[in-house]
Structures are given as structure tokens and as C-alpha cells.
Amino acid sequence: MPHFANFFLSLVDHAGYGGLFLVMTIGNMGVPIGAELIVPAAGALAATGHLSSLWLAATVATLGEVVGGSILYAIGYAGGRPFVVRYGRYFKLSEQKLDAFGDFYERHGSVVVFVCRFIPFVRGVSALPAGVSRMPKRYFLAYTAAGSAVFCFGLAWLGSVFGHHIDEITPQIHRISFLVAVAIIVAIIVAVVATVARSRRRSAKTI
Asked: What gap in Å lies between CA 150 and CA 130, rounded to an integer?
């Protein structure tokens, strides 16, 4: 594991669920903690008795993601574009990237927030442009919670299965997250194309 991720994993190991909640919260406020490594490691800690429950670990991780994302969303909502202009570089978010996020949200809707939960690094900062774009709070929370739950419960379970052998699979977890994200994005594109094609056929019939 990268040294940075090792620091946060050590925090989880020593502070338990409180440490896990803190790590997942700050990981969704732009700090690159490597959540795709931390969550399965938490599952492994549960499987080996360092944490008492796999399901509680996954639940705490999910809550941490939602809280962290909500804080970053609120910052974007309140600060708007001026915040991105002044501080966006700390989140690797330029005005051009903000515009791209906004256009993507407008074209594909709030489901984009769900998809972002599976893309490394993007998942940790996606709440900021969602807030700046003034995405309705109920949709943001619903899709963030759903995506985070799938991410956290899935990777925590994967970590529990491998237990002591978690270090052997961590190089593959980045690839798994990327492939899942690609599959979801492709599915959305296919659905959008199919919807547009149906609309055109209906329009052609009415002419």
C-alpha cells in the first residue's frame, strides 16, 4: 500500500470505527486517502477480529462518505464559482473542469453522482461541482448514499473474504474500481442513446 494510505489504515486500526468514520469523511472532502484500499482493509480487519463487525464497518464507512460529501457539497453550494476560482487548485478543479462537470450533470442528470462514487480520486471531489451546480440536495444525498453503500459494502465484503491476504489483492482493487466505473458509464451511454433513438422514432411517426 502507498505510505499515505498506510497512515490512514493505521488510524483505522488503532482508533476503530471512529477512525474509520474520520478517514472516510475527510476522504470525501478532497483528501486523497485511497478509499478503494482503506475500505477492503477495514473488511479484512473485521474478518481478523480487529473490528467487531463487517456490516458495521461498511455502514460506518458509508456514513463517513455521505457526511464528507455533504460538507463538500455545502461548501460548493455556498461558495459557488468564486470558491472554485480561488481554491479549486487545491482540489485539482479548474473552471474548465467545473464547466465540464456542470454540462455532464445537465445532460445525464443526478445519476452522474452515483457513477462518480466508483471512480478513483473523482469520487473524493465530485461533491464540490455538484454543490456549485446547485444540484437538488435530495438527489445529491440519495445518489451519494446509494453509490457509497454499493462501494463500501462491496469492497468491505471483498476485504473480509481475503482477510490476511488483503495485501495480495490491493494492486488489483484499483483495476476493479476502474472497470466497474467503465461498465456503469457504458451502460448509461447505451441507455441515453437508446432513449434518444426511441424519441426520434416517435417524432418521425408523428410527422
From this structure: 20
Number of domains the chain contains = 1
CB 102 within 8 Å of CB 129: yes
Cα–Cα distance, 205 to 207 (Å, whole number): 6
| H-helix segments, the chain | 3-27, 35-47, 54-87, 95-108, 111-116, 122-125, 127-132, 137-162, 166-206
Contact partners, residue 188, CB within 8 Å, separation at least 6: 108, 111, 115
Name the nearest CA neighbour of 126 among 65, 191, 37: 65
What angle in degrees, to the nearest 10, is found between the helix axes of 95-108 and 54-87?
A: 120
Cα–Cα distance list, 16 to 46, 89, 128, 186, 192 (Å): 10, 33, 28, 37, 43
User: CA separation (Å) from 49 to 11, 19, 103?
Assistant: 16, 16, 46
- Cα separation, 46 vs 155, whole angstroms: 12
pLDDT in tens, 45-75: 888 888 888 899 999 999 999 999 999 899 8
pLDDT digits (tens, 9 = 90+) for 120-148: 777 778 888 888 888 888 888 998 999 89
Domain holding 25, by residue range, is 3-206
**Do 111 and 188 contact (CB within 8 A), yes or no?**
yes
